[in-house]
């Protein structure tokens, strides 16, 4: 029980990171120099600096110190170098590389490419169709607006697609992937991953956008949380599939590879709406359907027999209480 509460709490953390000064394009426009192109490389032994570009296409390269780099307008190339840097790309289609140490990268407008490099980085794509790559370290990655590509790579990463139709890939490590709004494709890859096709609000309630997402666990013991019309595929090893009464009966989730011999099914329900919940299972010669109070939750292709005693039926109020105790 507390394990499920813990993973929901982890998903809430991924929804609530605050980027101070993340959307300051207007302030940048007011203070920007006259339009021109600028190339600037900081000596490796320079002290901490603020590097500011222009309205043109700039190339700004930091040194070994902890720099703040601001690209302003134009299609910029911004490189942090060593040190824990803060890089704000501004408008334009920018290429941002944090390089060494623990960096904060903010894309803002445009279709940006943001790479964290070494270290545990915090990256926000902003508006536009962005490529957000965590690379090494335990990274926290947000796509935000647009149709984004988000790659965790090495480390135990947190990926959140935000709005738009996003593609998320965890890579190595035990990753947490949240699709956000839109039709998303989420791939955990290696490690024991937590993959959610639903969102979680500040009160711990699961919110379903009722748009089909594709959740793929791949290798490892993964936890997949599905919403309406979502397609869940755990992959290798023993996986946990979570569905709930947020799913529309006419758009049940599909669990492609449930194996009762090794996988786990969990059903969450609102105990105010279902004071006496009843699970049931119907099957024909080829497929089965898991139902709550007679309403379909999940299609189970190839499953014709299911022991309901093996399905965990969990009240959301119990989870909320456990999350409060954990906090």
Automatic annotation (TrEMBL):
The answer, when asked if Secreted is one of the entry's keywords, is yes
Q: What GO MF annotations does this protein's record show?
A: calcium ion binding
Coarsely, its chief localization is secreted
Under Pfam families, the record lists:
HemolysinCabind
GO cellular component annotations of the record:
extracellular region
Protein's cellular compartments: Secreted
Quote the biased-composition stretches of kind Acidic residues, using this chain's numbering. 23-40
Q: Which domain of life is it from?
A: Bacteria
The entry's keywords: Secreted
| Segments of skewed composition (Gly residues) | 161-173
Q: Does the keyword DNA damage apply?
A: no
Ranges where the record places region Disordered: 21-48, 111-173
Check the record and name the InterPro entries matching this protein: Hemolysin-typ_Ca-bd_CS, Hemolysn_Ca-bd, RTX_toxin/Mannuronan_C5-epim, Serralysin-like_metalloprot_C
Q: Which PANTHER family match?
A: S-LAYER PROTEIN
Q: What is the name listed in the Swiss-Prot or TrEMBL entry for this protein?
A: Type I secretion protein
Give the organism, scientific name. Answer: Actibacterium mucosum KCTC 23349
